[in-house]
């Protein structure tokens, strides 16, 4: 059993990254097809601005998911569970829904799907890092980092709640002009900040920063 566990732990990173890369490639292909078939994107209008904003959020979301998985897999060692090979398919479905909902008419369902993607991504990262903490091979990193508390989850909670709140306000008011644009700008800022945070984590793991 120890040999089986060691073999699974050794082969898990390459299997997971291969799976994630396939799903992200399919998401990028779907996004490119959406760009080509959406004529409204090439006209100067509020719908075009909103549409390009949705596309940039979707693209940055794909980048963030890839960066999250690649950083965790190459930076940490943890005991894989069966769900680790299943959750990427759920993330893929969420990404496909996010891209499919891009259209000339803004749909608040897009915001709810984005919020659910944030929930899934944060759950994956937290559950994986919690298992990585108990592995002695990661002790050099986790000896300097305190276990996550409620304060550490506040940014994620605020982000998800804000996206849902944007959706509810748009549904109630019927505003399909500046409110969707504000929600899209907020999502882009959050995703850019998360990618930069992963960059800092990567530099720390590679020994480039203290």
From TrEMBL:
Q: Which UniProt keywords apply?
A: Membrane, Transmembrane, Transmembrane helix
Membrane-spanning ranges: 12-32, 44-69, 109-129, 150-170, 176-196
Q: What is this protein called?
A: Uncharacterized protein
Q: What is the lineage of its organism?
A: Bacteria, Pseudomonadati, Pseudomonadota, Gammaproteobacteria, SAR86 cluster
């Amino acid at each position: 059993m120890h040999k089986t566990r060691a073999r699974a732990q050794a082969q898990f990173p390459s299997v997971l990254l291969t799976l994630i890369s396939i799903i992200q490639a399919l998401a990028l292909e779907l996004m490119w097809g959406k760009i080509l078939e959406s004529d409204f994107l090439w006209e100067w209008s509020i719908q075009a601005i909103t549409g390009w904003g949705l596309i940039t959020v979707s693209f940055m979301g794909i980048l963030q998911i890839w960066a999250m998985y690649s950083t965790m897999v190459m930076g940490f060692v943890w005991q894989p569970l069966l769900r680790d090979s299943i959750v990427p398919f759920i993330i893929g479905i969420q990404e496909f829904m996010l891209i499919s909902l891009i259209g000339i008419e803004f749909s608040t369902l897009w915001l709810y799907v984005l919020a659910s993607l944030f929930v899934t991504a944060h759950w994956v990262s937290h559950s994986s890092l919690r298992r990585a903490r108990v592995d002695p091979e990661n002790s050099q990193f986790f000896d300097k980092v305190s276990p996550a508390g409620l304060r550490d989850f506040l940014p994620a909670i605020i982000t998800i709640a804000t996206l849902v709140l944007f959706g509810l306000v748009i549904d109630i008011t019927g505003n399909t002009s500046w409110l969707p644009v504000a929600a899209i700008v907020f999502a882009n800022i959050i995703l850019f900040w998360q990618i930069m945070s992963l960059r800092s984590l990567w530099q720390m793991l590679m020994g480039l920063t203290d």
